[in-house]
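cache lookup: miss for this entity combination. No prior model stored, computing from scratch. Input as submitted by user K.M.:
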Amino acid sequence: MINIQDIRDTARDMLAKGEVRAVIGYRRGSRGMLAEPAFITDPAQADDLVWDPTCFHNLSLYLVEDRKFLTHVRKTANAPIAIVTKGCDARSIVVLLQEHYFKREDVYIIGVSCEGTGVVDERKLAPHLNGFQASNAAFDGDDFVFITAEGEKRLPAREVMADRCLECRIPFPKEHNAVFGEDKTGRQLAEPFAALTRFETQGTAERWDFWSHHFDRCIRCFACRSVCPMCYCEECVVDSITFPVTTETTAEDKANRIRWIERSAVRSENITYLMTRAMHLAGRCTDCGECERACPVNVPIRLLNNKMEREAREQFGFEPGASIGGPSLVASFLDNDPGDFIR
Amino acid sequence: MSDQQNYEPRIVAFLCKWCSSAGSDLAGVSRIQYPANATPITVPCTGAISPMYILSAFNKGADGVLVSGCHIGDCHYIEGNYLARRKMHLIMQLIEFIGVEPNRFRMSWVSAAEGAKFAQVITNFVDDLQPLGPQDKLKKAERV
C-alpha cells in the first residue's frame, strides 16, 4: 500500500534543500475525479500531490518539453527535476536516456509501483456509475473506490482497469532514485498481449475491414504524437516545417518538394502516418497507452505498437526500456535474426 | 480478354547498388527474358532503406514492393543487410497485420553474379501479384 504522504514528504524535502528545481507529479484536476499533471517548485505546494487510479499521464513527456525549452533559451539545468513515475513511465525515461536525450543526473526518478492494480479506463468505468460523475477515486487493495453523488462505489479493479495495465508485465519502475510500493512483477491479471492475440485470430480480410474503418476515422489531430514522450523529433516527417522558402524558391520547387505524407485526413495518408509512427516507435514504445487514451476518435493505436513490441520480443528477444546501456532495436542485429521470408 | 489477363502489376524494386543492381544489369546483358513490370530504384545499401520508402511506394500506387540486396555476409558496408533484415521483417509484419496481402512485399538476396536468379525473383513476384489484382488499400485516392 502506498502512502501518499511519503511521496509528498520526499518532494517537500528535496525542494526545500534545493536538490531539485521542480517536482513533476499529479494533483487533483478540475474535472471530477481526474488527476492532472502538477509542476511544483514551492515546497509548500508539495501537499497538492496525489496518487490515485486516475494518474494515467506519462509525465516523462514533460522532461522532453523541459529539455526542448532549455535548448530554446540556451540555458543549462542547474539541478535535476524530480518526477513521479509508474513502471511504464520509468521505462520511457530509460529509453530517452538510452537515446541520450538528457543525462541520468538531470532527472530524479520517484518511482511508484502500481502494485496489484493500475490506472482506470474511463471508457470502461462509465457504464458502472449510472450516469453520475465520480468526484474521487482511490486504490483499496484489489478494488477501486469511487465517490459519486450516489455515494461510495466499490468496483473490482480488473473490471475497470485500462487494458494496458491488465496486460502489463512489469508494473514496477526498475530504474529509480526512490521507490514506493511493493514490487509485484509477475502478477498476471491478463495474458500479455491478450488483446493483440485475440485480434490476430482473424483473417486478412477481417483485419483489413477493421483497420480501414479505423484509418478512415482518424482526423489527424496529432494528439497521439503530442502526448507521446518518444515523439520528440524537432521536425516530424508529416510536416516538413524546415523546407526553406526564400525569394529564390520557385513555385515548381515548392510544388515538387518531398511530401512523404500529405496532411489531408484521408485513409491512405492516415495509414501511412499511423504505420510510420508505429515503425518509429518499434523498440521504443513502452506501452504507456497514452496515444490511445488521447485519441478523440478511439483509434486502437495501441494494437499497432503492441504488434511491434511483441514482434521485437519474440523474434529479436528485445525488451524496450530494459536498460540504459542496451542497444536500440533497429540499430543492432543478431546473426540468427529470422530471415526465412527472404527469397 | 478479361481485365484479369490485361492486368500488369507495377513493382517498385529497391536494389542495392553493389549486388542486386549489378545482378539486374547482368540479367539484361545476358539477354535473359523476364517481365518488364519492375521499376528499379538503386539505393546505396539495403540498410539505407527506410520502411517509409515501402509505405510511400504503396501510397503512390505500387502493386508490389521488392527489396533486394547482397547476401548475408557480403554487404559492402559489412552490416547493412543485417540491419535491413530486421527492419524489413518489422515492416512486413506490420503490413500483413493491417490486412494487406503479405505477397505484396518481398525481399530477396541477389548477388552481382546472379542475373538468372534476379530474373527468377521478378518472374515469381509477378506471378504471385497477378491473382491479387491492383493494390488499392494503401494507394492515395484519386483527386475528384
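stored under new cache key. Chain A is about 35% helix and 15% strand.
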